[in-house]
Write a structure and sequence with these properties.
644 residues; alpha+beta; four-stranded antiparallel sheet; three-stranded antiparallel sheet; 13 strands; 8% strand
Amino acid sequence: MDIHSKKKDASIFLRFTCFFFFLFRCSICDSSTLFPSLLSSHAKKNLSLSLSSLWYCWKFGSSATSYLSLGSKMASYQMEWSQSRNLSVRSPDALCSVAEIDEFDFSKALVERPRSLNIERQRSADERSMSELSVGFSPRPSSTKNDNSSRAGDTFDSAFSPLQKSGIPRSLILDPHPIINEGWEALRRSLVYFRGQPVGTIAALDNSDEKLNYDQVFVRDFVPSALAFLMHREPDIVKNFILKTLRLQSWEKKIDRFQLAEGVMPASFKVFHDPVRNHETLIADFGESAIGRVAPVDSGFWWIILLRAYTKATGDSSLAERPECQKGMRLILSLCLSEGFDTFPTLLCADGCCMIDRRMGVYGYPIEIQALFFMALRCALQLLKQDPEGKEFMERIVKRLHALSYHLRSYFWLDLKQLNDVYRFKTEEYSHTAVNKFNVIPDSLPDWVFDFMPHHGGYFIGNVSPARMDFRWFCLGNCIAILSCLATPEQSVAIMDLIESRWQELVGEMPVKVCYPAIESHEWRIITGCDPKNTRWSYHNGGSWPVLLWLLAAASIKTGRPQIARHALEIAETRLLKDNWPEYYDGTQGRYIGKQARKFQTWSIAGYLVARMMLDDPSHLGIVALEEDKHLKPLLKRSNSWNL
């Protein structure tokens, strides 16, 4: 060995030894005894110790392996010293201890498998091309019951994180941000138990105000929590939730003297404990207790989407194939696919039937419901069994999907060229050759939309109905359009272009605006009925909702633009924990905590965790994203804005 190599080796040894000595001294500080609340951070330092060893081994190769034994011995001394003081060095997730790491062969982890499987796939989304992830989140076609064994072993082979399937212990995966542990602790505190089993998460844990219905388990609110548990390989709570809500669907549902359809899913439920009989029962709300008494149209769609996510994540198709689950899907689909007086394939809905559950002018054909409808139909197509009843519904679904995708891509899509066309519309056209098919009056175009629309970009507008176009931008509807492939690949890129171009308006100081822009003054009085909660730039009227982070992150990764999600997460991480996980933020930039926002809002916590896990391990995207269906040939091959 030449003199240069010896000096380099000595330098590495010195830095490595000093680094371990610093961590060793920090971890045995007396503060861990004086302040038991710091035990989680104490355990985290143990994790950082092990990860540092792995990093040095990877960085310097075999030249560093001779120093690993030193770090492992120091770690074991720390373990023994901590145990003598009755301190636990395990994290809340029961990760392996530092002493157990001493038995782990780091060189074997680096040599035993190719780097492309073990190290390369640990990179975050913005360090990788989407071609590397295509296998990770591409769904498989549905199979018959005869090949269930292959579905469990092959169809879902890439649903779990590659890190969880590799030979490296989970203890070596260090949380990249300190609020992740706090988020998981808060999420677990929100769990709701029914007869000893977890069945969901409470809407919020804020005890500072009147509970209203924030002490209940909401179907739509639980979705990001369910995704977080699925990505964390804890599917039991999701399975319990699916079965319990399915049981509630079969209940008799009445509002006053009117009986609701059998397929309606509850908006929420809560556990009622009878102290006299020492008995627990579930109490469901189908809209009879909601503000405005509106039944939730989106609950059934979210239930189907969640059932598909569970199947994809676990490889367990037996749950979806249960007779009660098949019946539940058919009941939901019967409501949506029923024939009536409609001339459009979209669903006609009342105000307040979805996430925006108050009067906000979304009656008619809101994009949120249409996008969820499209995604739920595609998920059901994968989940329905190939029996006579299932085949009948599958035929109806395929016909509806063709009509629905044509309608939404043609009439809901807006870019610069389409905006110019609407601006030049003629009115009172009467024939099959009419261009202005909905008789939209050009003078009804709002002034703001001309400045809002960038040269390259576009989005699905909020609503289209006779003589009415709602030009507001809605986050959930556009992100679901990307994940479900309702948007063509070119339209998906255009939506992300718009978000980047209008970052200050749509993200600002807290992601993400639920809709843009806010309605105010006389328009606010007419549309909301002077709603004191939906004042301008607050709540559903232009408020910023952290829960939407998971949708933005998923859409960003799917379109190959993970830097958008990373930037949004960096903004959110500066405030969410400090502000105690608010429900929403107010102001044009999302600068202020919402005036009536609950703290420790569960889906704000879960939305952040899901976004972070997807960004750190993009193969999780397969749980929530669908692949483009080649049979649904898009009308628009590209975004019209690119023709300029």
